[in-house]
Amino acid sequence: MKKRHIGLAAVGALGAAYLTKKVTAEKKAVKDVEIEEEINSRYYGDKQVYLIGGGIATMAAAAYLIRDANFNGKNIHVIEGMKILGGSNDGIGTNETGFVARGGRMLNEETYENFWDLFDSIPSIDWPNHSVTEEILNFDHLHPTHAQARLVTKEQEIVDAHTMGFDNDDRLAMTKLLAASEESLDSVTIEEWFGAHFFETNFWYMWQTTFAFQKWSSAFELRRYMNRMILEFSRIDTLEGVTRTPLNQYDSVILPLKAFLEKHGVDFTLNEDVVDLEFESGAEITVTALKLGNGETIELAEGDVVIMTNGTMTDSSTEGDWSHPAPEVTEESRSARLWRNIAKKKAGLGNPEPFFGNEKETNWESFTVTCRGDKLLKRMEEFSGNIPGSGALMTLKDSSWLMSTVVAAQPHFKNQDPDTTIFWGYGIYTDKVGDYVKKPMRDCTGEEILFEWICQMGWEEDWEEVKQDIVNVIPAYMPYIDAQFQPRKMSDRPQVVPENSTNFAMVSQFVEIPKDMVFTEEYSVRAARIAVYTLFNIDKEIIPVTPYNRDPKVLAKAAQTMFR
Fold first, then answer.
1. What are 304-357's pLDDT values in tens digits?
2. Is the backbone of residue 465 left (phi > 0), alpha (psi -120 to 50) or beta?
3. Of 29, 59, 208, 248, which is least packed with CB atoms within 10 Å of its CB?
4. What's the whole-number mean pLDDT along residues 8-13?
5. Number of alpha carbons in the 13 Å side-chain half-sphere of residue 481
6. At what angle do helices 56-68 and 255-263 cross, to 10 degrees?
7. Span 9-38, mean pLDDT?
8. Number of helices and strands in the chain (H, E)
9. HSE of 31, CA atoms in CB hemisphere, 13 A
């Protein structure tokens, strides 16, 4: 008993010491914040920053302002037209009505330099005392990708995709493309550069569906991808370079970033459009006011800054369900509308028309399948040899819609029940009539899209049984999802901080960043870093593009791959 009393006394003493230490630490933290805010107010005064759009680019810009400019979060304002943050990094739904992710963002450990650096300073929500970067890379290293059924024929045969399938004309055209100057590729399409044989190679089917290229996409962008992702060229058949997040990108990336910004007092306004900007007259680009969709105007004071999303690839997307196709698009892209409005007023702000003027060429459609139990996923595992989360894309190369599917590690959503499973897929040619459902993909219900896929897999005899386990299939039609790949002139994409700008920058997949490739998280984060560091004169490094395309070992491996 005596020892117990002594133990309790010791525990009590330790507890008191801990509480004292905790209170002291909390007081110090409060004091540190007060000191930091005082320093900020002296340095920046009452300067305000307005971030138009609530996607990863503007949220990253807010994080850089806080982390590297020591800017007061209360003076940062994010204005988003939708009812939810995240932009194209989405993921939402319920076990009862089904889940949906319009797309899946594949990360890459070697080439996403600024993304990993930024998220190394963003705390994980689910893994205490660790960063988001640590959380993602730890998960990915424990769940490595090695696709064993990258391409599948209409006879349900798994293709030996290790062979690229090039002939000498293909090799010569690719070598010339990599050697070509970017200036010589204005408005040139991939289809104009390569012969017909190229588009029947294993390489094209894999590269096209991994990165969502079309034949009519820009040859310039293919060149950038080949240079930037040359490490992936030799492993495109297994997709070993794909880095996966523990959950969908909204849960794994956006939520912790949002929590970080909220902790620092960042102001969020949702469901409100910015429809136009007003500028000072003259050669300089100085924003003086924001015009809102509700008719209100936000007047800027001297020194205030605006960072604008000038294009969003998931704008104007529509969603269907099991019984309904995704509706036709009726609303104009809000980000393109704003870009058009300001491009008329000042030189050097780019040209949105090549990107947002041809829906027929820039669309594709995804579908998210929510199931009760795991029977369908088990069947996919038996066919492919990949457990959920290890296979990346499986492409049905002969399907008229060019369908691909991804089975992520389960669960893929924070609120997903243990007895609920999901997988995701997409089709590139939405205007083509299905091989089994005799309608264009974009006119099909969720049920019809799943039936087409089941038939492509050769499982149509089991359709009635499969249906019993389906909660929902949600098609998502995205009219501008491939817009950033459109053929265009070098001048069509504006600089992040345009020449003569005093307080204005643009961030998105539609700005020009030398050597980097669009349709990536890295591009958005890099743009945000350039915008903040330039406008706030921050003398810190923006991590450059790693030149793997100049590494002799990497180049030798790529050369060998061309002859596989």
1. 999 999 999 999 999 999 999 999 998 889 999 999 999 999 999 999 999 998
2. alpha
3. 29
4. 36
5. 25
6. 40
7. 47
8. 19, 19
9. 6
Question: What's the confidence (pLDDT) of residue 2?
Answer: 29
Token pair recorded at residue 48: 């305000």
Query: What tokens appear for 265 in the block?
Result: 């007092």
The answer to whether residues 496 and 507 touch, using CB atoms and an 8 Å cutoff, is yes
> What is the rounded distance in angstroms from the CA atom of residue 432 to the CA atom of residue 128?
49
Q: Are 482 and 217 in contact (CB under 8 A)?
A: yes
Answer yes or no: are the C-beta atoms of 413 and 251 closer than 8 Å: yes
Distance, C-alpha 305 to centroid of its chain: 25
**What average pLDDT does this structure show over 167-189?**
94
Pairwise CA distance, residues 251 & 263, whole Å: 17
**Coil, strand, or helix at residue 155?**
coil
Burial of residue 529, with CB atoms counted within 10 A of its CB: 0-12 exposed, 13-18 middle, 19 or more buried: buried
Instruction: Please state, in angstroms and rounded to a whole number, the distance separating the CA atoms of residues 392 and 397.
Output: 15
The DSSP secondary structure of 272-320, one letter per residue, reads --EEEEEE-SSSSB-EEEEEETTS-EEEPPTT-EEEE----TTTT-EE-
Length of the chain, in residues: 564
Antiparallel, parallel or unpaired: β 76-79 and 98-100: unpaired
| Cα distance between residue 73 and residue 263, in whole Å | 9
Task: Supply the DSSP symbol for 245.
Answer: -
Q: CB under 8 Å to 40, separation ≥6 — which residues? A: 70, 71, 72
DSSP string, 35-82: HHHHHHHHHHTT--EEEES-BHHHHHHHHHHHHHS---GGGEEEE-SS
* 298: Cα within 13 Å, side-chain hemisphere: 23
> What pLDDT, in 10s, does the model give residues 128-169?
999 999 999 999 999 999 999 999 999 999 999 999 999 999
CA dihedral sign, ordered 199, 205, 206, 209: positive
Alpha-carbon distance of 45 to 48, in angstroms, equals 9
Closest CA to 423 of 399, 462, 457, 464: 457
pLDDT score at 106: 85
Map tokens 């091989």 to a residue: 435
CB 252 within 8 A of CB 268: no
pLDDT of residue 28: 56
Which neighbouring-strand residues pair with 406?
Answer: 393, 424
Does position 21 have pLDDT exceeding 50, yes or no? no
Q: How far apart are CA 88 and CA 314, in angstroms?
A: 6
